[in-house]
Protein backbone atom coordinates (compact mmCIF):
# COMPACT_ATOMS: atom_id res chain seq x y z
CA UNK A 1 0.00 0.00 0.00
CA UNK A 2 1.31 3.41 -0.85
CA UNK A 3 1.23 5.27 2.44
CA UNK A 4 0.84 8.83 1.29
CA UNK A 5 -0.84 8.51 -2.06
CA UNK A 6 -3.09 11.45 -2.80
CA UNK A 7 -6.07 9.24 -3.41
CA UNK A 8 -8.74 9.18 -4.62
CA UNK A 9 -8.02 12.27 -6.68
CA UNK A 10 -4.38 11.36 -7.21
CA UNK A 11 -4.61 10.51 -10.89
CA UNK A 12 -6.55 13.64 -11.75
CA UNK A 13 -4.19 15.89 -9.80
CA UNK A 14 -1.22 14.25 -11.45
CA UNK A 15 -2.64 14.92 -14.93
CA UNK A 16 -3.50 18.52 -14.04
CA UNK A 17 0.03 19.10 -12.73
CA UNK A 18 1.70 17.67 -15.82
CA UNK A 19 -0.58 19.58 -18.19
CA UNK A 20 0.02 22.84 -16.33
CA UNK A 21 3.77 22.28 -16.42
CA UNK A 22 3.66 21.57 -20.16
CA UNK A 23 1.56 24.70 -20.75
CA UNK A 24 4.03 26.77 -18.78
CA UNK A 25 6.94 25.28 -20.73
CA UNK A 26 5.22 26.30 -23.96
CA UNK A 27 4.45 29.74 -22.52
CA UNK A 28 8.11 30.04 -21.58
CA UNK A 29 9.00 29.99 -25.28
CA UNK A 30 6.98 33.15 -25.90
CA UNK A 31 8.02 35.35 -22.96
CA UNK A 32 11.05 37.54 -22.79
CA UNK A 33 13.88 36.18 -20.64
CA UNK A 34 17.02 37.92 -19.47
CA UNK A 35 19.62 35.22 -18.88
CA UNK A 36 22.52 36.41 -16.74
CA UNK A 37 24.82 33.43 -16.73
CA UNK A 38 24.20 31.45 -19.89
CA UNK A 39 22.86 28.34 -18.20
CA UNK A 40 19.63 30.12 -17.23
CA UNK A 41 19.03 30.79 -20.89
CA UNK A 42 18.75 27.06 -21.69
CA UNK A 43 15.25 25.99 -22.69
CA UNK A 44 13.11 25.00 -19.71
CA UNK A 45 15.87 25.83 -17.22
CA UNK A 46 13.34 26.80 -14.54
CA UNK A 47 11.70 23.40 -14.88
CA UNK A 48 14.54 20.92 -15.19
CA UNK A 49 16.91 22.62 -12.77
CA UNK A 50 14.54 22.49 -9.75
CA UNK A 51 13.66 18.88 -10.64
CA UNK A 52 17.31 17.94 -10.74
CA UNK A 53 18.01 19.91 -7.56
CA UNK A 54 15.20 18.23 -5.62
CA UNK A 55 16.25 14.77 -6.82
CA UNK A 56 19.84 15.44 -5.72
CA UNK A 57 18.54 16.74 -2.37
CA UNK A 58 16.60 13.53 -1.81
CA UNK A 59 19.71 11.49 -2.68
CA UNK A 60 21.79 13.58 -0.27
CA UNK A 61 19.14 13.18 2.41
CA UNK A 62 19.29 9.40 1.95
CA UNK A 63 23.04 9.55 2.45
CA UNK A 64 22.62 11.63 5.59
CA UNK A 65 19.95 9.23 6.81
CA UNK A 66 22.40 6.34 6.51
CA UNK A 67 25.24 8.15 8.28
CA UNK A 68 23.46 10.21 10.96
CA UNK A 69 20.23 8.36 11.52
CA UNK A 70 18.06 7.20 12.98
CA UNK A 71 18.42 9.11 16.19
CA UNK A 72 17.71 7.01 19.26
CA UNK A 73 16.65 9.36 22.02
CA UNK A 74 13.59 11.38 22.91
CA UNK A 75 14.03 13.36 19.69
CA UNK A 76 14.12 10.26 17.51
CA UNK A 77 10.52 9.32 18.09
CA UNK B 1 16.24 62.37 28.68
CA UNK B 2 14.20 62.98 25.52
CA UNK B 3 10.45 63.23 25.94
CA UNK B 4 9.86 60.96 22.92
CA UNK B 5 11.05 57.97 24.93
CA UNK B 6 7.65 57.82 26.59
CA UNK B 7 6.32 56.92 23.12
CA UNK B 8 8.75 54.01 22.78
CA UNK B 9 6.56 51.07 21.60
CA UNK B 10 8.77 48.49 23.35
CA UNK B 11 8.17 50.14 26.72
CA UNK B 12 4.40 49.85 26.34
CA UNK B 13 4.53 46.30 25.03
CA UNK B 14 6.72 45.06 27.87
CA UNK B 15 4.74 46.84 30.58
CA UNK B 16 1.51 45.69 28.92
CA UNK B 17 2.82 42.13 28.86
CA UNK B 18 3.43 42.24 32.61
CA UNK B 19 -0.09 43.63 33.22
CA UNK B 20 -1.56 40.92 30.93
CA UNK B 21 -0.23 38.32 33.35
CA UNK B 22 -2.70 39.55 35.97
CA UNK B 23 -5.78 39.78 33.74
CA UNK B 24 -8.38 37.21 32.71
CA UNK B 25 -11.16 36.87 30.17
CA UNK B 26 -12.36 39.81 28.11
CA UNK B 27 -10.01 42.49 29.55
CA UNK B 28 -7.06 40.29 28.75
CA UNK B 29 -8.26 39.60 25.20
CA UNK B 30 -8.91 43.31 24.63
CA UNK B 31 -5.53 44.35 25.96
CA UNK B 32 -3.67 41.67 23.96
CA UNK B 33 -5.36 42.83 20.74
CA UNK B 34 -5.20 46.53 21.50
CA UNK B 35 -1.57 46.77 22.61
CA UNK B 36 0.09 45.95 19.26
CA UNK B 37 -2.26 48.36 17.46
CA UNK B 38 -1.51 51.08 20.01
CA UNK B 39 2.25 50.42 19.71
CA UNK B 40 2.05 50.61 15.90
CA UNK B 41 0.19 53.93 16.19
CA UNK B 42 2.88 55.26 18.54
CA UNK B 43 5.65 54.10 16.23
CA UNK B 44 4.02 55.64 13.18
CA UNK B 45 3.81 58.98 15.00
CA UNK B 46 7.51 59.24 15.91
CA UNK B 47 9.45 61.21 13.28
CA UNK B 48 12.65 59.64 11.97
CA UNK B 49 15.57 60.44 14.22
CA UNK B 50 17.55 59.38 17.25
CA UNK B 51 16.20 59.83 20.76
CA UNK B 52 17.88 59.07 24.06
CA UNK B 53 19.94 61.14 26.39
CA UNK B 54 19.89 58.55 29.14
CA UNK B 55 23.17 58.25 31.03
CA UNK B 56 24.65 54.87 31.85
CA UNK B 57 28.19 54.50 33.23
CA UNK B 58 30.25 56.84 31.04
CA UNK B 59 27.90 56.64 28.10
CA UNK B 60 24.89 58.51 26.85
CA UNK B 61 22.53 55.97 25.34
CA UNK B 62 20.47 56.43 22.17
CA UNK B 63 17.64 54.19 23.25
CA UNK B 64 15.33 54.89 20.33
CA UNK B 65 16.34 55.25 16.69
CA UNK B 66 13.59 55.47 14.12
CA UNK B 67 14.59 55.03 10.49
CA UNK B 68 13.17 53.11 7.54
CA UNK B 69 14.91 49.80 8.31
CA UNK B 70 14.13 49.77 12.04
CA UNK B 71 10.56 50.91 11.49
CA UNK B 72 9.90 48.19 8.91
CA UNK B 73 11.10 45.41 11.20
CA UNK B 74 9.25 46.87 14.20
CA UNK B 75 6.01 47.08 12.20
CA UNK B 76 6.38 43.50 11.02
CA UNK B 77 6.94 42.37 14.62
CA UNK B 78 3.85 44.26 15.75
CA UNK B 79 1.83 42.61 12.99
CA UNK B 80 3.12 39.18 14.11
CA UNK B 81 2.26 40.01 17.72
CA UNK B 82 -1.26 41.14 16.79
CA UNK B 83 -2.06 38.17 14.57
CA UNK B 84 -0.44 35.78 17.06
CA UNK B 85 -2.67 37.25 19.79
CA UNK B 86 -5.77 36.71 17.68
CA UNK B 87 -4.73 33.10 17.06
CA UNK B 88 -3.91 32.54 20.75
CA UNK B 89 -7.22 33.89 22.10
CA UNK B 90 -8.16 30.37 23.14
CA UNK B 91 -4.81 29.71 24.82
CA UNK B 92 -5.33 28.57 28.41
CA UNK B 93 -1.77 29.09 29.59
CA UNK B 94 -1.56 32.18 31.81
CA UNK B 95 2.13 32.57 31.05
CA UNK B 96 2.44 32.30 27.28
CA UNK B 97 0.81 35.43 25.84
CA UNK B 98 2.19 37.80 28.53
CA UNK B 99 5.65 36.29 27.95
CA UNK B 100 5.16 36.69 24.19
CA UNK B 101 4.46 40.40 24.71
CA UNK B 102 7.65 40.85 26.74
CA UNK B 103 9.50 38.86 24.05
CA UNK B 104 7.96 40.77 21.14
CA UNK B 105 8.40 44.08 22.95
CA UNK B 106 12.08 43.32 23.49
CA UNK B 107 12.43 42.43 19.80
CA UNK B 108 10.84 45.77 18.85
CA UNK B 109 13.21 47.48 21.31
CA UNK B 110 16.20 45.72 19.76
CA UNK B 111 15.38 46.78 16.20
CA UNK B 112 14.80 50.37 17.36
CA UNK B 113 17.96 50.50 19.52
CA UNK B 114 20.35 53.25 18.49
CA UNK B 115 23.38 52.00 20.42
CA UNK B 116 24.99 48.67 21.17
CA UNK B 117 24.37 48.73 24.94
CA UNK B 118 20.61 49.25 24.53
CA UNK B 119 20.65 46.55 21.87
CA UNK B 120 22.31 44.15 24.30
CA UNK B 121 19.76 44.84 27.06
CA UNK B 122 16.81 44.12 24.74
CA UNK B 123 18.70 41.13 23.29
CA UNK B 124 18.88 39.48 26.71
CA UNK B 125 15.30 40.38 27.55
CA UNK B 126 14.28 38.60 24.35
CA UNK B 127 16.10 35.47 25.51
CA UNK B 128 14.18 35.50 28.80
CA UNK B 129 10.82 36.22 27.17
CA UNK B 130 11.24 33.50 24.55
CA UNK B 131 12.36 30.95 27.15
CA UNK B 132 9.15 31.63 29.08
CA UNK B 133 7.09 31.18 25.88
CA UNK B 134 8.71 27.76 25.33
CA UNK B 135 8.32 26.86 29.00
CA UNK B 136 4.59 27.61 28.75
CA UNK B 137 4.41 24.59 26.42
CA UNK B 138 4.16 22.30 29.46
CA UNK B 139 6.30 19.98 31.50
CA UNK B 140 7.83 18.30 28.44
CA UNK B 141 9.00 21.67 27.17
CA UNK B 142 10.92 22.58 30.32
CA UNK B 143 14.25 20.79 29.56
CA UNK B 144 14.23 22.15 25.99
CA UNK B 145 13.50 25.65 27.33
CA UNK B 146 16.51 25.38 29.64
CA UNK B 147 18.76 24.17 26.81
CA UNK B 148 17.49 27.04 24.69
CA UNK B 149 18.23 29.52 27.48
CA UNK B 150 21.78 28.15 27.90
CA UNK B 151 22.55 28.60 24.19
CA UNK B 152 21.14 32.13 24.16
CA UNK B 153 22.86 33.18 27.37
CA UNK B 154 26.09 31.89 25.85
CA UNK B 155 25.36 33.92 22.72
CA UNK B 156 24.73 36.93 24.97
CA UNK B 157 28.08 36.47 26.72
CA UNK B 158 29.87 36.32 23.36
CA UNK B 159 28.02 39.44 22.21
CA UNK B 160 28.79 41.26 25.48
CA UNK B 161 32.49 40.36 25.18
CA UNK B 162 32.49 41.69 21.62
CA UNK B 163 30.69 44.91 22.56
CA UNK B 164 33.02 45.52 25.51
CA UNK B 165 36.13 44.98 23.38
CA UNK B 166 34.62 47.15 20.65
CA UNK B 167 34.00 50.05 23.06
CA UNK B 168 37.32 49.70 24.89
CA UNK B 169 39.10 49.66 21.52
CA UNK B 170 37.63 53.05 20.69
CA UNK B 171 34.70 51.77 18.64
CA UNK B 172 31.52 53.79 18.26
CA UNK B 173 28.76 53.33 20.83
CA UNK B 174 26.20 53.87 18.08
CA UNK B 175 25.05 50.69 16.39
CA UNK B 176 26.04 51.08 12.76
CA UNK B 177 27.88 49.14 10.04
CA UNK B 178 31.17 47.66 11.28
CA UNK B 179 34.21 46.33 9.44
CA UNK B 180 35.36 42.83 10.39
CA UNK B 181 38.87 43.97 11.28
CA UNK B 182 39.34 42.81 14.84
CA UNK B 183 38.42 40.19 17.41
CA UNK B 184 35.75 42.47 18.88
CA UNK B 185 33.80 42.66 15.63
CA UNK B 186 34.13 38.92 15.04
CA UNK B 187 32.76 38.26 18.53
CA UNK B 188 29.82 40.58 17.87
CA UNK B 189 29.19 38.77 14.58
CA UNK B 190 29.36 35.40 16.37
CA UNK B 191 26.90 36.61 19.01
CA UNK B 192 24.46 37.67 16.27
CA UNK B 193 24.91 34.43 14.34
CA UNK B 194 24.13 32.26 17.37
CA UNK B 195 20.68 33.87 17.49
CA UNK B 196 20.30 33.43 13.74
CA UNK B 197 20.84 29.67 14.05
CA UNK B 198 24.16 29.43 12.19
CA UNK B 199 26.58 26.48 12.37
CA UNK B 200 27.44 25.06 14.88
CA UNK B 201 24.65 26.63 16.93
CA UNK B 202 21.65 25.73 14.84
CA UNK B 203 20.13 22.78 16.63
CA UNK B 204 18.64 24.90 19.42
CA UNK B 205 15.91 25.95 17.02
CA UNK B 206 14.44 22.57 16.00
CA UNK B 207 15.09 21.34 19.55
CA UNK B 208 13.19 24.06 21.39
CA UNK B 209 10.60 25.73 19.15
CA UNK B 210 8.48 22.67 18.33
CA UNK B 211 8.07 21.91 22.05
CA UNK B 212 6.22 25.16 22.64
CA UNK B 213 2.43 25.06 22.79
CA UNK B 214 0.26 25.11 19.65
CA UNK B 215 0.31 28.91 19.65
CA UNK B 216 3.74 29.45 21.21
CA UNK B 217 5.73 28.51 18.13
CA UNK B 218 3.87 31.14 16.08
CA UNK B 219 5.37 33.86 18.29
CA UNK B 220 8.76 32.16 18.44
CA UNK B 221 9.12 31.87 14.67
CA UNK B 222 8.76 35.63 14.22
CA UNK B 223 11.18 37.38 16.54
CA UNK B 224 14.55 35.86 17.47
CA UNK B 225 15.89 34.87 14.06
CA UNK B 226 14.47 37.95 12.33
CA UNK B 227 16.04 40.25 14.94
CA UNK B 228 19.32 38.49 14.14
CA UNK B 229 18.73 39.15 10.43
CA UNK B 230 18.09 42.82 11.26
CA UNK B 231 21.27 43.26 13.32
CA UNK B 232 23.34 41.53 10.64
CA UNK B 233 21.83 43.88 8.03
CA UNK B 234 22.60 46.86 10.18
CA UNK B 235 26.01 45.77 11.45
CA UNK B 236 27.59 43.72 8.67
CA UNK B 237 26.01 44.46 5.27
CA UNK B 238 28.13 43.09 2.46
CA UNK B 239 30.38 40.97 4.72
CA UNK B 240 31.29 38.24 2.23
CA UNK B 241 31.78 35.61 4.93
CA UNK B 242 28.01 35.69 5.43
CA UNK B 243 27.38 34.14 1.99
CA UNK B 244 28.90 30.69 2.76
CA UNK B 245 27.52 30.80 6.31
CA UNK B 246 24.03 31.48 4.99
CA UNK B 247 24.19 28.90 2.22
CA UNK B 248 25.43 26.24 4.66
CA UNK B 249 22.46 26.98 6.95
CA UNK B 250 20.10 26.78 4.00
CA UNK B 251 21.50 23.42 2.85
CA UNK B 252 21.36 21.98 6.35
CA UNK B 253 17.78 23.17 6.77
CA UNK B 254 16.73 21.50 3.53
CA UNK B 255 18.31 18.10 4.15
CA UNK B 256 17.11 17.84 7.74
CA UNK B 257 13.63 19.06 6.83
CA UNK B 258 13.41 16.36 4.15
CA UNK B 259 14.01 13.60 6.69
CA UNK B 260 12.26 14.98 9.78
CA UNK B 261 9.03 13.33 10.85
CA UNK B 262 7.60 15.84 13.34
CA UNK B 263 5.64 18.40 11.30
CA UNK B 264 6.63 21.49 13.27
CA UNK B 265 10.27 20.44 13.35
CA UNK B 266 10.16 20.31 9.54
CA UNK B 267 9.03 23.93 9.66
CA UNK B 268 11.74 24.74 12.23
CA UNK B 269 14.38 23.44 9.81
CA UNK B 270 12.71 25.49 7.09
CA UNK B 271 13.17 28.59 9.28
CA UNK B 272 16.92 27.90 9.39
CA UNK B 273 16.85 27.39 5.64
CA UNK B 274 15.14 30.71 4.94
CA UNK B 275 17.20 32.66 7.49
CA UNK B 276 20.26 31.20 5.73
CA UNK B 277 18.87 32.53 2.43
CA UNK B 278 18.51 35.99 4.02
CA UNK B 279 21.99 35.91 5.56
CA UNK B 280 23.50 35.03 2.16
CA UNK B 281 21.56 38.02 0.78
CA UNK B 282 23.08 40.26 3.47
CA UNK B 283 26.50 38.96 2.37
CA UNK B 284 25.78 40.15 -1.19
CA UNK B 285 25.20 43.53 0.38
CA UNK B 286 23.93 45.61 -2.56
CA UNK B 287 20.97 47.93 -2.04
CA UNK B 288 18.73 45.54 -3.92
CA UNK B 289 19.92 42.56 -1.88
CA UNK B 290 19.32 44.38 1.41
CA UNK B 291 15.90 45.51 0.24
CA UNK B 292 15.18 41.91 -0.72
CA UNK B 293 16.30 40.57 2.66
CA UNK B 294 14.18 43.09 4.59
CA UNK B 295 11.19 42.33 2.38
CA UNK B 296 11.72 38.58 2.61
CA UNK B 297 11.94 38.76 6.40
CA UNK B 298 8.41 40.16 6.26
CA UNK B 299 7.15 37.54 3.77
CA UNK B 300 8.78 34.74 5.72
CA UNK B 301 7.24 35.77 9.03
CA UNK B 302 3.83 35.81 7.35
CA UNK B 303 3.91 32.47 5.51
CA UNK B 304 5.78 30.57 8.22
CA UNK B 305 3.38 31.80 10.90
CA UNK B 306 0.48 30.78 8.65
CA UNK B 307 1.83 27.24 8.24
CA UNK B 308 2.60 27.00 11.95
CA UNK B 309 -0.93 28.14 12.77
CA UNK B 310 -2.38 25.45 10.52
CA UNK B 311 -0.22 22.75 12.13
CA UNK B 312 -0.97 24.21 15.59
CA UNK B 313 -4.68 23.82 14.85
CA UNK B 314 -4.05 20.19 13.84
CA UNK B 315 -2.16 19.57 17.10
CA UNK B 316 -5.06 21.01 19.12
CA UNK B 317 -7.57 18.82 17.26
CA UNK B 318 -5.66 15.54 17.13
CA UNK B 319 -2.92 15.74 19.77
CA UNK B 320 -0.53 14.29 17.16
CA UNK B 321 2.63 15.94 15.95
CA UNK B 322 4.30 13.44 13.60
CA UNK B 323 3.72 13.03 9.88
CA UNK B 324 3.46 9.26 10.32
CA UNK B 325 0.54 9.73 12.75
CA UNK B 326 -1.26 12.30 10.63
CA UNK B 327 -2.88 12.24 7.21
CA UNK B 328 -6.14 12.75 5.39
CA UNK B 329 -7.22 15.69 7.53
CA UNK B 330 -8.33 17.72 4.50
CA UNK B 331 -11.84 16.26 4.87
CA UNK B 332 -12.22 17.06 8.56
CA UNK B 333 -10.42 20.44 8.49
CA UNK B 334 -10.98 21.85 4.99
CA UNK B 335 -10.54 25.52 5.96
CA UNK B 336 -7.31 24.88 7.85
CA UNK B 337 -6.10 22.76 4.94
CA UNK B 338 -6.87 25.62 2.54
CA UNK B 339 -4.84 28.03 4.64
CA UNK B 340 -1.96 25.54 4.84
CA UNK B 341 -1.96 25.17 1.05
CA UNK B 342 -1.97 28.95 0.75
CA UNK B 343 0.89 29.15 3.26
CA UNK B 344 2.96 26.72 1.17
CA UNK B 345 2.20 28.65 -2.01
CA UNK B 346 2.95 31.97 -0.27
CA UNK B 347 6.59 30.88 -0.12
CA UNK B 348 7.05 31.97 -3.72
CA UNK B 349 3.93 31.74 -5.88
CA UNK B 350 2.82 34.80 -7.87
CA UNK B 351 0.20 36.99 -6.15
CA UNK B 352 1.70 36.24 -2.74
CA UNK B 353 4.28 38.13 -0.70
CA UNK B 354 6.97 35.45 -1.17
CA UNK B 355 7.02 36.00 -4.93
CA UNK B 356 7.74 39.71 -4.80
CA UNK B 357 10.39 39.38 -2.06
CA UNK B 358 12.38 36.28 -2.98
CA UNK B 359 12.82 37.48 -6.54
CA UNK B 360 14.48 40.69 -5.25
CA UNK B 361 17.26 38.69 -3.57
CA UNK B 362 17.66 36.40 -6.60
CA UNK B 363 17.84 39.42 -8.88
CA UNK B 364 20.50 40.96 -6.62
CA UNK B 365 22.62 37.79 -6.90
CA UNK B 366 22.18 37.83 -10.69
CA UNK B 367 23.09 41.53 -10.94
CA UNK B 368 26.24 40.89 -8.91
CA UNK B 369 27.11 38.03 -11.33
CA UNK B 370 27.47 35.55 -8.50
CA UNK B 371 26.70 32.44 -10.55
CA UNK B 372 27.11 29.81 -7.84
CA UNK B 373 25.29 31.87 -5.24
CA UNK B 374 22.42 32.41 -7.66
CA UNK B 375 22.24 28.70 -8.50
CA UNK B 376 22.32 27.81 -4.79
CA UNK B 377 19.50 30.28 -4.16
CA UNK B 378 17.46 28.67 -6.94
CA UNK B 379 17.98 25.30 -5.20
CA UNK B 380 16.84 26.88 -1.92
CA UNK B 381 13.76 28.42 -3.55
CA UNK B 382 12.70 25.08 -5.05
CA UNK B 383 13.91 23.01 -2.10
CA UNK B 384 12.01 24.81 0.63
CA UNK B 385 8.75 24.48 -1.32
CA UNK B 386 9.56 20.79 -1.78
CA UNK B 387 10.90 19.88 1.66
CA UNK B 388 8.70 22.05 3.86
CA UNK B 389 5.69 23.40 1.97
CA UNK B 390 4.58 20.38 -0.04
CA UNK B 391 5.79 17.85 2.48
CA UNK B 392 3.90 19.28 5.45
CA UNK B 393 0.70 19.94 3.51
CA UNK B 394 0.61 16.56 1.74
CA UNK B 395 1.67 14.42 4.71
CA UNK B 396 -0.63 16.12 7.21
CA UNK B 397 -3.74 16.94 5.20
CA UNK B 398 -3.73 14.36 2.41
CA UNK B 399 -2.60 10.77 2.16
CA UNK B 400 -4.12 7.80 3.95
CA UNK B 401 -6.70 8.87 6.57
CA UNK B 402 -5.71 7.77 10.10
CA UNK B 403 -9.21 7.72 11.59
CA UNK B 404 -8.43 10.79 13.64
CA UNK B 405 -11.23 12.48 15.53
CA UNK B 406 -10.72 16.05 14.36
CA UNK B 407 -12.94 19.06 13.75
CA UNK B 408 -12.42 22.34 12.00
CA UNK B 409 -10.29 24.90 13.88
CA UNK B 410 -12.23 27.34 16.14
CA UNK B 411 -12.97 30.90 14.87
CA UNK B 412 -10.08 32.61 16.72
CA UNK B 413 -7.56 30.29 15.05
CA UNK B 414 -9.23 30.70 11.68
CA UNK B 415 -9.13 34.49 12.04
CA UNK B 416 -5.42 34.39 12.80
CA UNK B 417 -4.81 32.40 9.62
CA UNK B 418 -7.20 34.56 7.59
CA UNK B 419 -5.44 37.79 8.56
CA UNK B 420 -2.04 36.40 7.58
CA UNK B 421 -3.32 35.03 4.27
CA UNK B 422 -4.93 38.39 3.46
CA UNK B 423 -1.72 40.23 4.34
CA UNK B 424 0.33 38.00 2.04
CA UNK B 425 -2.24 38.33 -0.73
CA UNK B 426 -2.50 42.11 -0.40
CA UNK B 427 1.27 42.60 -0.55
CA UNK B 428 1.59 40.05 -3.36
CA UNK B 429 -1.08 41.74 -5.47
CA UNK B 430 0.06 45.29 -4.76
CA UNK B 431 3.86 45.27 -4.14
CA UNK B 432 4.21 49.01 -3.38
CA UNK B 433 2.50 48.31 -0.03
CA UNK B 434 5.76 46.69 1.02
CA UNK B 435 8.26 48.17 -1.42
CA UNK B 436 7.51 51.72 -0.21
CA UNK B 437 8.54 50.73 3.31
CA UNK B 438 11.91 49.22 2.33
CA UNK B 439 15.17 50.92 3.40
CA UNK B 440 16.22 51.87 -0.16
CA UNK B 441 14.23 53.02 -3.20
CA UNK B 442 13.07 50.03 -5.24
CA UNK B 443 13.57 49.97 -8.98
CA UNK B 444 12.23 46.52 -9.75
CA UNK B 445 9.14 45.15 -11.44
CA UNK B 446 8.28 41.65 -10.16
CA UNK B 447 5.28 41.13 -12.46
CA UNK B 448 6.74 40.63 -15.91
CA UNK B 449 5.61 37.79 -18.15
CA UNK B 450 8.99 36.10 -17.85
CA UNK B 451 9.11 36.22 -14.04
CA UNK B 452 5.62 34.84 -13.60
CA UNK B 453 5.99 32.04 -16.15
CA UNK B 454 9.43 30.97 -14.92
CA UNK B 455 8.30 30.99 -11.30
CA UNK B 456 5.25 28.89 -12.16
CA UNK B 457 7.54 26.48 -14.07
CA UNK B 458 9.70 26.17 -10.95
CA UNK B 459 6.75 25.51 -8.62
CA UNK B 460 5.04 23.04 -10.95
CA UNK B 461 8.26 21.16 -11.68
CA UNK B 462 8.93 20.93 -7.95
CA UNK B 463 5.42 19.61 -7.36
CA UNK B 464 5.85 17.01 -10.11
CA UNK B 465 9.13 15.75 -8.70
CA UNK B 466 7.60 15.69 -5.21
CA UNK B 467 4.85 13.33 -6.31
CA UNK B 468 7.38 11.17 -8.13
CA UNK B 469 9.60 10.86 -5.06
CA UNK B 470 7.10 10.97 -2.21
CA UNK B 471 7.30 7.26 -1.43
CA UNK B 472 11.03 7.66 -0.92
CA UNK B 473 10.37 10.57 1.42
CA UNK B 474 7.89 8.47 3.38
CA UNK B 475 10.48 5.74 3.76
CA UNK B 476 13.03 8.19 5.15
CA UNK B 477 10.83 9.85 7.83
CA UNK B 478 12.64 10.02 11.14
CA UNK B 479 15.14 12.15 13.01
CA UNK B 480 18.86 12.62 12.54
CA UNK B 481 21.73 13.15 14.92
CA UNK B 482 22.51 16.84 15.03
CA UNK B 483 25.18 19.02 16.59
CA UNK B 484 23.24 19.08 19.88
CA UNK B 485 23.98 15.36 20.25
CA UNK B 486 27.52 16.34 21.22
CA UNK B 487 26.54 18.53 24.13
CA UNK B 488 23.46 16.60 25.16
CA UNK B 489 24.82 13.05 25.01
CA UNK B 490 28.56 12.94 24.54
CA UNK B 491 29.19 15.93 26.83
CA UNK B 492 27.38 14.55 29.88
CA UNK B 493 29.05 11.17 29.33
CA UNK B 494 32.52 12.69 29.45
CA UNK B 495 31.51 14.87 32.38
CA UNK B 496 30.60 11.69 34.26
CA UNK B 497 34.01 10.27 33.49
CA UNK B 498 35.70 13.41 34.75
CA UNK B 499 33.62 13.61 37.93
CA UNK B 500 33.65 9.94 38.98
CA UNK B 501 37.01 9.01 37.57
CA UNK B 502 37.90 6.67 34.77
CA UNK B 503 36.91 3.51 36.68
CA UNK B 504 33.27 3.45 35.56
CA UNK B 505 34.28 3.66 31.91
CA UNK B 506 37.30 1.36 32.09
CA UNK B 507 35.34 -1.80 31.29
CA UNK B 508 33.99 -0.15 28.15
CA UNK B 509 37.47 0.94 27.07
CA UNK B 510 39.00 -2.52 27.69
CA UNK B 511 36.17 -4.12 25.73
CA UNK B 512 36.83 -1.76 22.80
CA UNK B 513 40.58 -2.50 22.84
CA UNK B 514 39.99 -6.27 22.97
CA UNK B 515 37.54 -6.06 20.09
CA UNK B 516 40.08 -4.07 18.07
CA UNK B 517 42.82 -6.68 18.69
CA UNK B 518 40.43 -9.51 17.73
CA UNK B 519 39.48 -7.71 14.51
CA UNK B 520 43.15 -7.22 13.69
CA UNK B 521 43.93 -10.92 14.24
CA UNK B 522 41.01 -12.02 12.08
CA UNK B 523 42.15 -9.68 9.32
CA UNK B 524 45.74 -10.98 9.53
CA UNK B 525 44.53 -14.57 9.39
CA UNK B 526 42.39 -13.80 6.34
CA UNK B 527 45.37 -12.51 4.41
CA UNK B 528 48.29 -14.56 5.70
CA UNK B 529 46.65 -17.71 7.16
CA UNK B 530 46.87 -21.17 5.61
CA UNK B 531 43.91 -20.36 3.35
CA UNK B 532 44.75 -16.67 3.08
CA UNK B 533 44.98 -14.75 -0.17
CA UNK B 534 48.76 -14.60 -0.01
CA UNK B 535 49.15 -18.30 0.85
CA UNK B 536 47.54 -19.49 -2.36
CA UNK B 537 49.39 -20.87 -5.34
CA UNK B 538 49.46 -18.17 -7.97
CA UNK B 539 50.18 -18.57 -11.71
CA UNK B 540 53.71 -17.49 -12.75
CA UNK B 541 52.08 -15.09 -15.27
CA UNK B 542 50.60 -13.00 -12.45
CA UNK B 543 54.03 -12.97 -10.71
CA UNK B 544 55.60 -11.60 -13.93
CA UNK B 545 52.87 -8.95 -14.18
CA UNK B 546 53.44 -7.72 -10.58
CA UNK B 547 57.22 -7.63 -11.08
CA UNK B 548 56.72 -5.63 -14.28
CA UNK B 549 54.39 -3.26 -12.45
CA UNK B 550 56.90 -2.76 -9.64
CA UNK B 551 59.71 -2.08 -12.11
CA UNK B 552 57.48 0.44 -13.91
CA UNK B 553 56.81 2.18 -10.59
CA UNK B 554 60.54 2.38 -9.87
CA UNK B 555 61.08 3.83 -13.33
CA UNK B 556 58.35 6.40 -12.83
CA UNK B 557 59.76 7.36 -9.41
CA UNK B 558 63.23 7.70 -10.91
CA UNK B 559 62.07 10.20 -13.52
CA UNK B 560 59.90 12.22 -11.09
CA UNK B 561 61.54 15.56 -10.26
Automatic annotation (TrEMBL), chain A:
Annotated keywords = Membrane, Transmembrane, Transmembrane helix
TM spans (from-to): 12-31, 43-61
Top-level taxon of the source organism: Bacteria
UniProt name for this protein: Uncharacterized protein
UniProtKB/TrEMBL annotation, chain B:
Which Pfam family is one of those matched by this entry? Proton_antipo_M
GO cellular component entries? plasma membrane
Q: What is its main location?
A: membrane
Q: Which GO terms describe its molecular function?
A: oxidoreductase activity
Q: How does it sit in the membrane?
A: Multi-pass membrane protein
Q: Which UniProt keywords apply?
A: Cell membrane, Membrane, Oxidoreductase, Transmembrane, Transmembrane helix
Q: Which InterPro entries match?
A: ComplexI-like_HydComp, ND/Mrp_TM
TM segment ranges? 6-23, 30-52, 72-90, 97-114, 120-137, 149-171, 183-202, 214-233, 239-259, 266-285, 297-316, 337-357, 372-398, 419-438, 450-469, 538-560
Compartments annotated for it: namely: Cell membrane; Membrane
The NADH:quinone oxidoreductase/Mrp antiporter transmembrane domain extends over 113-379
> Superkingdom of the source?
Bacteria
Name of the molecule in the record: Na(+)/H(+) antiporter subunit D
Upper lineage: Bacteria, Pseudomonadati, Pseudomonadota, Betaproteobacteria, Rhodocyclales
